[in-house]
Amino acid sequence: MTNIKIKKIFNKKNGIRAGFLALLILTVYLLSCILQVKSEHGINQVEGMYWQPENAIDVVAMGTSHVHCGVNTTLLWEKYGIASYDYSGAEQPLWMTYFYLKELYKYQTPKAVVVDVYAPARFKEDYQYDWIAENIYGMKFSLNKLEMLSVSAEPAKIPSYFPSFAVYHSRYDDLGKEDFDNFFWDWEKKESFKGFTPYWNVRPQQRPEIYEEGNDGLTEKSEKYLRKIISLTKKNNTRLVLMVTPYIITNEDMRAYNKIAEIAGEEGITFINYCEYFDEIGLDFEKDFNDESHLNYWGSCKFTDFLGGFLDCDDAIPDRRGEEGYESWDDNVQMIYDKLESYENGTLEKLEY
After folding, report:
1. 326 exposure class (CB count in 10 Å sphere: 0-12, 13-18, 19+)
2. Regarding predicted confidence, which is higher, 14 or 154?
3. Backbone phi, then psi, for 272, in 5-degree steps?
């Protein structure tokens, strides 16, 4: 057999091997896209960040579900031209917010970071498992993710959340239509998602009264990571705004917020408790809440308009409307209006917390 024939045989075999390898990789990718856990309580928010145009987000809102149900990215764009993103997860503790922020800086250079501080006021445990998966599954594998896991879960419980694909196999019976709209060719839809997931229920609430002056409600771990967040934003020359989004606040919560206000003062950081501005925002306790902890869509419009007016005073935050590369924010407006139309037509499947 000549050398030429031998080379042809080996080239043919190598081509077959390469073809099988490519097919295997494609199959694994498609299965992963279909089976991976999806959720608008945090997983979609962190996964969606990777699809955003690089260095396009000017304002990122971070923290708990108070952010992705209350900070209306559509209104910030449509009225103020602010290119924003809700990069948050249900009951997200400050240590996870810190590692989210580190992840964000790999892809974005925001002008301002707005951090909701509800979690450290309400949840005091060093390991908070109720919604931890929502804050893990969407993040790409990296040393940063491993470091986040190491401070968020006890060693014996880490295998329950990592590696993420280890939990996919149990989802075969739970697959729905949305699981088959999750491929790279759906990139425009992914890019137009800005994290905002409005709630549509209307549940009247009793207006809270605030009188607590104590300041001993912040745990040592929460304070440690709050200061790390402050340090990281200063290192990256990013304006940091700490805030409390409107909800039915308790006086026990205020014990943490009073301490956070002290820390913010020490560090020269803005802290705004929007529960002290119910009247200025114009919130209606009969119509603007989804539940005692979350604004509904209409409440988010009022609150975000008030927040947008504050952010709009910052000359470092530009009006991006009409700029090339920001078309996905226009698409986000249409996405939310489509949901509003579905609600009005009675065909919207409401998101529950």
Report:
1. middle
2. 154
3. -130, 120
Using left for φ > 0, alpha for ψ between -120 and 50, and beta otherwise, residue 337 falls in alpha
Separation of CA 154 from chain center: 24
DSSP letters, 284-299, are: -TTTSBSSSS-B-HHH
* CA–CA distance, 10 with 138 (Å, rounded to integer): 42
Residue pair 254/212 in contact by the 8 Å Cβ criterion: yes
Whole-Å CA distances, 10 to 18, 142, 161, 219, 327: 12, 38, 43, 65, 49
Q: How much is the pLDDT for 340?
A: 93
Contacts for 100 with CB less than 8 Å, ≥ 6 apart: 46, 62, 87, 89, 92, 135, 139, 148
Beta bridge partners of 271: 242
Spatial separation of the C-alpha atoms in residues 40 and 88, rounded to whole Å: 10
Confidence tier at 351 by pLDDT (50, 70, 90): low
* Whether 27 contacts 53, CB under 8 Å: no
Single pTM value for the model: 0.86
Closest CA to 176 of 322, 27, 37: 37
Residues whose CB is less than 8 angstroms from the CB of residue 88 and which lie 6 or more positions away in sequence, other chains included = 42, 45, 61, 62, 63, 64, 65, 66, 67, 68, 116, 195
Across 265-272, average pLDDT: 98
Q: How far apart, in whole angstroms, are the C-alpha atoms of residue 193 and residue 197?
A: 9
| Spatial contact of 46 and 138, defined as CB atoms under 8 Å apart | yes
120 neighbors 94 (Cβ within 8 angstroms): yes
CB 89 within 8 A of CB 41: yes
CA nearest 34: which of 163, 139, 175? 175
